[in-house]
Amino acid sequence: MTASSITIAATDGGSFSAYVARPAGGAPAPAIVVIQEIFGVNAVMRGVCDWLAGEGFVAICPDLFWRIEPGIDITDQTKAEWDRAFSLFGAFDRARGIADIEATRAVAAGLPGTTGKVGAVGYCLGGHMAYRTAAETPIDASVGYYGVGINEVLNLAPGIKTPLMLHIAEKDGFVPPEAQAKMAEGLGGNPLVTLHTYAGQDHAFARIGGAHYDKASADLANARTLAFFRQHLA
């Protein structure tokens, strides 16, 4: 596995950086856009990219907070960092974020050593954005982990034209039961959408080092994610 950073031009001017992890060997590989949590392109997100590269994908994680402040890289370990993260979450423009994800997808499709197939995977805020990516861009397949606020934008669901998988934490403190019920009602009948609920799990159960990390549930979700991408990005 090798890692580097690239610069991507935004469609409305300016540019932003992205972390790129590549698998060993020279065979062309599908690409996956990794969509950050509210902590920026931090060690956890770089670790996701490295994991995907180890599984044979080219992973690229764009800095979606660059319009607010470039290079955000914080953790979930202190109250001050949580306060900063929620401030960034509140200031984030999701429409412009989708434009930046689409710019990243287009670059990823043409990167040397890729096949042209591109998926997306996101966590928390990124899980929400992965849903929107499925509905608003020509991505080939998308996965969202414990996306927040999807129930508020179910009007976008008719735009889903490619496979989408959502991992839902049953006890998610940010996605209450009524929100989960709306997601099931709004998306459950779509044959392109797969919903997995993890009993007893709270938000960020797959974030290594997080307060709610659960290895068994994370391993199951990650195995499902890899199988999903191997099927739909082949």
Jot down its keywords:
234 residues; alpha/beta; Rossmann fold; eight-stranded mixed sheet; 35% helix; 24% strand; globular
Structure explained in plain terms:
This protein has six helices and eight strands. With 234 residues, the protein is α/β, with parallel strands linked by helices. Helix 3 crosses helix 4. It has a single domain, classed as Alpha/Beta hydrolase fold, catalytic domain (Rossmann fold), CATH 3.40.50.1820. InterPro entries: AB_hydrolase_fold (IPR029058), Dienelactn_hydro (IPR002925), Dienelactone_hydrolase-like (IPR051049). GO terms for molecular function: hydrolase activity. This is Carboxymethylenebutenolidase.
* Distance N to C terminus: 20 Å
Number of domains: 1
CATH topology: Rossmann fold
Which radius of gyration do the C-alpha atoms yield? 16 Å
Gross morphology is globular
CATH superfamily: Alpha/Beta hydrolase fold, catalytic domain
**What is the number of helical segments per DSSP (H or I, 4+ residues)?**
6
Q: Do you know the CATH architecture?
A: 3-Layer(aba) Sandwich
User: What is the mean pLDDT?
Assistant: 97
Biggest sheet strand order reads: 1-2-4-3-5-6-7-8
Q: Structural class, from helix and strand content?
A: alpha/beta
Largest sheet: 8 strands, mixed
Provide the succession of SSEs. EEEHEHHEHEEHEH
Detail the poorly predicted runs.
Answer: none
As a percent range, the share of helical residues equals: 25-40%
CATH hierarchy class name: Alpha Beta
Q: What is the β-strand count?
A: 8
The percent range for strand residues is 15-25%
Protein name: Carboxymethylenebutenolidase
Pfam family, one: DLH
GO molecular function: hydrolase activity
InterPro entries: AB_hydrolase_fold (IPR029058), Dienelactn_hydro (IPR002925), Dienelactone_hydrolase-like (IPR051049)
